[in-house]
């Protein structure tokens, strides 16, 4: 009896192990193990009050397991591998396209200034004023570029957090993926209900999709 | 003719500022970042500097600190020109020796008003 009281319980031992591990941070898997341990020790001697606690803890364990499955079903791996990089590429393309367009507009404004230099005084003033207004309006490109860069940085932060989520739910995600592979979803095409949304991928990023030349060849 | 150094990594902003300042009869030099600007001021100290905050290699505030330590570096009027509009940034710029603070986007009217305030017009 005395020997048994000095022996750490399995749960106490598990808690001790957890405290020693990873600088005190505990992952969801480890919590499940502890809960399972508590349930196991409760099974040995259950009073009515104990049973109530047991049921509550079992409910909690089931809730954790169900939440894990729900989060895994959201497929955070897809968010990290597909959606976030695609969103970042689209934003980069916006910055590049607006920069390119802005430079062309400014070059055109310089051409207008060139014409102003050869025009009569009254016309020259009008053209120069117009060119100056074009230049000033073009400064929007710098501002939008900086704003989009902030959004890209926010996406990178989200990516890092999703990464942690994937690390915590790796097994569940693999399970969901295996289930999806075994039971592929019916596509709209299979259903015979092809909506435009499933077909639209434009605008294409630089170097992706079909070029105008390739499309023209299909009509030749 | 007074000299003006425009320091900004955006070609668009440099062109817009150059057009406005040339109209106001300044002689213009340009730099793409703080490091580039530091070399420029060591070759020739300008009368005024239009300075962006966020730039690669060396940002605006680091350039300003380095500028003010140079011989004759306390002379140029420095106008920060940036999208950073919170009080912390503005206060830091003033403490490091900026003379004015212009919010982007700017136009010729704002530029004229700010240049007048620092005695450049």
Describe the secondary-structure layout.
The complex is a heterodimer of chains A (220) and B (121).
Chain A: H1 2-6, H2 10-20, H3 28-44, H4 48-73, H5 76-118, H6 121-138, H7 140-168, H8 170-182, H9 188-191, H10 196-199, H11 212-219
Helix pairs in contact in A: 2-3, 3-4, 4-8, 5-6, 5-7
Chain B: E1 3-7, H1 11-23, E2 27-31, H2 34-43, E3 48-51, H3 60-69, E4 77-82, H4 87-95, E5 100-103, H5 108-117
Parallel strand pairs in B: 1-2, 1-3, 3-4, 4-5
Helix pairs in contact in B: 2-3
Task: List its salient traits.
heterodimer, A: 220 residues, mainly alpha, Helix Hairpins, 2 domains, 11 helices, elongated, disordered N terminus, B: 121 residues, alpha/beta, Rossmann fold, 5-stranded parallel sheet, 5 strands, 43% helix
Question: Please, could you describe this protein's structure?
Answer:
The complex is a heterodimer of chains A (220) and B (121). By secondary structure, chain A is mainly α. Chain A contains eleven helices and no strands. The longest helix of chain A has 43 residues, at 76-118. Chain A is elongated and about 105 Å long. The relative contact order of chain A is 0.07. Chain B is α/β, with parallel strands linked by helices. Helices cover 43% and strands 20% of the residues of chain B. Chain B contains five helices and five strands; from the N terminus they run βαβαβαβαβα. A five-stranded parallel sheet of chain B has the order 2-1-3-4-5, with helices on both faces. The A-B interface holds A 99, 102-103, 106, 131-132, 135-136, 138-143, 145-146 and B 8, 10-13, 15-16, 19-20, 23, 54, 83, 104-108.
């Amino acid at each position: 009896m005395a020997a048994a009281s000095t022996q750490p319980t399995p749960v106490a031992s598990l808690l001790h192990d957890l405290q020693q591990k990873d600088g005190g941070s505990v992952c969801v898997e480890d919590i499940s193990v502890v809960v399972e341990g508590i349930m196991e020790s409760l099974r040995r001697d259950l009073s009515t009050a104990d049973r109530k606690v047991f049921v509550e803890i079992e409910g909690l364990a089931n809730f954790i397991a169900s939440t894990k499955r729900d989060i895994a079903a959201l497929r955070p791996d897809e968010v990290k591998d597909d959606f976030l990089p695609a969103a970042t590429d689209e934003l980069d393309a916006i910055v590049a396209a607006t920069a390119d367009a802005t430079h062309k507009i400014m070059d055109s404004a310089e051409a207008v200034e060139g014409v102003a230099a050869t025009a009569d005084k009254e016309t020259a003033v009008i053209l120069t004023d117009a060119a100056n207004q074009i230049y000033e309006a073009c400064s929007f490109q710098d501002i939008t570029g900086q704003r989009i860069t902030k959004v890209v940085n926010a996406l990178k932060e989200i990516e890092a957090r999703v990464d942690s989520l994937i690390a915590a739910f790796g097994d569940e995600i693999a399970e969901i993926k295996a289930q999806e592979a075994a039971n592929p979803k019916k596509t709209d095409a299979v259903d015979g209900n092809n909506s435009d949304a499933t077909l639209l991928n434009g605008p294409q990023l630089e170097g992706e999709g079909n070029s105008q030349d390739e499309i023209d060849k299909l009509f030749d | 003719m007074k000299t003006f150094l425009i320091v900004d990594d955006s070609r668009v902003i440099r062109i817009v500022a150059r057009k406005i300042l040339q109209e106001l009869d300044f002689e213009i030099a340009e730099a793409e970042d703080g490091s580039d600007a530091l070399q420029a001021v060591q070759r020739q100290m300008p009368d005024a500097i239009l300075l962006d905050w966020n730039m690669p290699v060396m940002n605006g505030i680091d350039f300003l600190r380095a500028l003010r330590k140079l011989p004759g570096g306390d002379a140029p009027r420095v106008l920060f020109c940036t999208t950073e509009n919170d009080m912390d940034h503005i206060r830091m710029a003033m403490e490091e020796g900026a003379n004015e603070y212009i919010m982007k986007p700017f136009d010729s009217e704002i530029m004229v008003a700010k240049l007048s305030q620092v005695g450049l017009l």
